[in-house]
Amino acid sequence: MRLSRHISQLWQSRVPTDRHLNTYFFFAVARLALVFVPQPGYVHPDEFFQSVEVMTGDHFRLEHTRTWEFNNSMPLRSITLPFALLRVPWSFYEFFAMYVQELWNVEIITTYAYVVFPRLIYTLISYSNDWCLYRVCRLYGLRFEIRLLALGSSWVLLVFGTRTFSNSLEMAMCSWLLCLVAECMLRTNTVVYKKEFLEEKYDKAESISERVKIWKLKNALPPHNFQYMFAVASICVAGVFNRPTFLLFGAPMVFYWLLRGMGTRSVTFRDFNLRIGLFCLCALPALFVFIFCDSLYYQHLTVGELHMMQLGIDNFVFTPWNFVKYNLNSAQTASHGVHPCYVHLMVNMPLLFNVLALAGLGAFAQILLRFFRAEYQVLPRFQSIVSLMSGAIFVPLFFLSLINHQEPRFLIPITFPLLLLHAPKLVTGFSAKYPFQKEHHLLRAFYDRLLCSKASAPHLLRIWYVSNVVLTLFFGFIHQAGIYPLAENMAHVMATKPAATHVHLMTSHVYSLPLHLVNIPSSRVLQFNPRTHNRYRRQRDFFLYEYGSQPLDNLLHKVKLISGNCEVKLSGSSRLRYKLYLSIPASLSNDLHEALVRSNASSYLNFELLHVFYPHLSTEAFPRIQGRHPCDVDAPHWSHDDLRGTCAVEQPPALSYFYLTRQFSSFVHQFGLALYEIEVRRKRPREIVLTTAPPRPLPEAGA
User: Any idea what DSSP says for residue 457?
Assistant: First the structure.
């Protein structure tokens, strides 16, 4: 009884920082748990097609899609980091899976493993962001509890941090670089201050013994001029080869690293120029490794050419330069989507960081206003941590806004500096004191009602929690979430189908299906049979047709062409059997039925609804308020027409409980991905009955 009372008193007397730290640990564990659930949400195709699709397909010899970025003639993506982070761990996993199969007869190389294992690697890397944030806070004496809480609860870490995006690696590398630069700046400032202090003491010393003592103290100061030079240079090279946009994020950080101590007697332009030269030299080993590995992978460089030393400039691949050349062409970048220059500032920043984006933009606007008013004495010191973090946020934000293709994930590397500067405002409010230089009744009212601690502090942390949880649920479990279970279903179909049967899958209004998740041995490479030790080439038997967001009338035309081609092969000499599937958002079931009626295809095409994978939302096909169910859940009110599994037209609107609940049910059931099996109705040949007439009697004699 006393123990429980003591624990209760300790819990009630805990400080708020302990509560923030406990909440952070909860979100840190949740981040890891979300990997194993796994999150079925599909944020963007680049999650798979810029690394996992190619690496997993190559390693396990699976059917996979090699996008245009990995073409051998002009590759845009470096393969070195994905190879080190995925191919090498896959080798250990495959070795472990072999023993699990032998000992317990359990197969662990499955679609689930193809999704979870790469995400686990990237999630473990994401925890380095947390450590770097904690390290910088400890170095500069900042409160780390609320900053770690903001980072751990951010949907950027919970979703993007657990996915295999190159942007996630870019965010980790920016955190590493910021941590190293911040530590170097602090060390340089400390050493330079102590050195100049000792030099003044040395000049004022009267006795030789005192001068000797000061001289020894001065020589005992730790070196600072070239601290972490090799690490900083190597991270910069790796970041550029991972994503060339790292140049925009890393440039202000490297500039601050080079500029440390400038303006003092101890650090001159000679040190600045020497740092630049040695930095370039330290970058050469990493540069050589990346170019060499990429050139070997893309077959511009072969072992034979290395042995014969027949090397030229064409034998080497520099993928960042290819990336820059491609993106300098505005017509090519426009094919991926054109956005106004303000999208990053006005849309993507608030989407990623909500209230902290507003706090960051407001603080930067205040800095600019004071700069243009020549109020230099109130600006942050140039070589301070505030100046470093502000440059790491707004320099890349400015240059990325000049590019006509803008996505939210391009900005996730600024998560670290933004939260370091502004996360405490979640508990203190936007502004603890009046931020404006002039007193005005409108400005005073704006401050009192929105900005002051009393008005904003009680709500900001709640808004942060709610918005991040909602966005995590949406992008982690709803957005395009039917693709993963569809791949699992197709993997089961391929594993259980009869021999000599082709499977055709058509998709529309959904993201691209990663082929490696279907777990089909590749037909383009030689396979190895471990039992017979023979090599063989497998015939292709799975065909994927992706039609983007085409109108359903055009989609049905494609269905007719593919089914007609399959019927020709079925009736030919090979008698090749087939299965034809169509997957579209459930919100388009009614449109599909209407398109079938218009095209008169229902007379010979039968669509049978096999599955609806919930939840799923395609922004290309939003559910409608007055829609139709994609599957049979209310049998008395359903008609089994040609499009089997779709309900009849809804009842005329009537303000009744039954009508409202039915409409709500129709709306909810549209949040799914429907899978149809398409069969061709074959006309049976007419049965021809041959009848013979009875013989005519012979005429009687004499008649």
Answer: H
